Amino acid sequence: MKRRTTKLYPVKSVPFCKFWDIKIPHHTPHKLLFSYAYCWSNNIMFQYDSSSDTIKDTYFVDFQLSKYANVANDLIYFLLSSTKLEDKISKFDHYIKYYHDKIVENLKLLKYTKPLPTLRELHMTILRHGTYGYSVATGVMGFVLLDPKDSGSLANLLKPSEPGDETLCPLHANPRYRKHIALVLPWLLNRGALAKS
């Protein structure tokens, strides 16, 4: 584990704005979209088919963090904070291809007049903004993988009291989280997402 942690130290010097895309100029407007920016399971409402118990439709709820941003933010957030360990990394590129197919299909339906984004451009955008993956992996992914319990409420996490302190340790000591982070951090490192530039 020491080998991995020493490679994370350069991440500390990455400017905060790089994690959140604050005031970073975007020269390719067709890669920008209305970013949901809060894309995890608690903020998606599922409509089920009553006869087959399959998902019929999905709706995003809670738009408090939405912004105009690049596509990488939502994709990295949603895929890396997934609870399904076996798909998170092994099917990452598959999900990017699926997203690309759907975005192109919808842009054509909307009679979008600018050049359509290519799959290569989408992958390059994700690589360019891969540093955000570190923020997701060390932040929201821990919350998503916590087992439900009373002391793990957000209110307790924000209190400067003992109940809040008790929940911080399980956030990263959780065996589920440790399995995920052991897979995600080397993957981010090997993609160059943890490099300074």
TrEMBL record:
Q: Name one Pfam family in it.
A: EcKL
Q: Which residues cross the membrane?
A: none
Q: According to the lineage, what is the superkingdom?
A: Eukaryota
Q: Where is the CHK kinase-like domain?
A: 1-109
- Write the protein's name: CHK kinase-like domain-containing protein
Species whose genome carries this gene: Drosophila willistoni (Fruit fly)
Which gene name does the record give? Dwil\GK11731
